[in-house]
Amino acid sequence: MMDNELETQSKVNHKSSPELSQWRWPIVLLGITAMASIAYIYSVKTAKDITENTVRKTQEAIVDIKESAITIAENFQQSKITHTFTESLPEANDAGEGRLEVATLENTKHFKRTNKRTILWDKISLGTTVTEIRVPATFRYHIKLSDPWKLEVRDQQCFVISPMMRPTTPVAIHTDKIEKYSERGWARFNKEEQMDTLMKSITPRLTSHASSDSYVNLVREHARKTIAEFVRQWLMKEDHWRKDRFLTITVIFADEAASEDFPAKPTLQLN
Could you say which residues of the chain have pLDDT below 50? Predict the structure, then answer.
């Protein structure tokens, strides 16, 4: 009886073994396919995440660039450019800074004083004292950076209403090159006195010359170019002196603006 059961069980096991062998490879292939599908889905999702992250960062960078460009443009618009410029100027202090020297002029001035003395109702001459001095001097001109400025924008042109030009006083005298000449009349003894008086008058007379319209006009165009170069350096520092920003600078002094005596052409042009 037991032998029959063992024989029967052996037949059953022997019968089921070929059935399992028949399905083994399809099951393996199904497992490999499933694993490949999972790997593909993961890779697609990862690539999508990377792409979305890259796009987001690129969009953020573009926004930052646009905002930066807008800020630069706004600071150089008509309503803000004067404030932007004056904020960049150095502050004046008690040491004499806060000036921009714009022109110098070398000139030798000739001063002469003549004193004639007579008696007896001008019938008898006691002689004439003649005193002469030749003074080499350097006339310097400046603008005060703390004085009002005004910058205007018209297309790609920058118009600068500059502070008024001022003479720097006292005028620099080259004392080592001064030439003196003096001659007295036969009955005169005031040669030294007259020389001292003439020497004392030199500084105020030079100041008067420096402030005169004739001297100021001699250096006006040179001063205009100096100021234009000063503004150009500022525009270059701010990256606004180029073909797509500013192409010309025109400097107008405050006294010219008041009389509407404007320059006929730009002071400085982009090459």
Answer: 1-17, 20, 47, 54-55, 58-59, 61-72, 92-95, 186-189
Range of 229's domain?
A: 81-269
How many structural domains is the chain composed of? Answer: 2
Q: What is the pLDDT of residue 184?
A: 63
For the entire predicted model, the pTM comes to 0.66
DSSP the chain: -HHHHHHHHHHHHHHHHHHHHHHHHHHHHHHHHHHHHHHHHHHHHHHHHHHHHHHHHHHHHHHHHHHHHHHHHHHTSTTTHHHHHHHHSPPP-TTS-SEEEEEEEEEEEEEEEEEEEEETTTTEEEEEEEEEEEEEEEEEEEEETTS--EEEEETTEEEEEEPPPEEEEEEEE-GGG-EEEEE--TT---HHHHHHHHHHHHHHHHHHHHHSHHHHHHHHHHHHHHHHHHHHHHHHHTT--STTS--EEEEEEHHHHHHT---SS-SEE--
Which of 129, 148, 234 has the alpha carbon at shortest distance from 192?
129
According to the model, what pLDDT value does residue 231 have? 94
Confidence (pLDDT) at 193 = 79
Domain end among 75, 93, 114:
75
Contact 229, 268 (CB under 8 A): yes
176 with 252, same domain: the answer is: yes
Regarding whether 239 and 255 lie in a shared domain, the answer is yes
Four-CA torsion 9, 15, 17, 20, nearest 10 degrees: -130
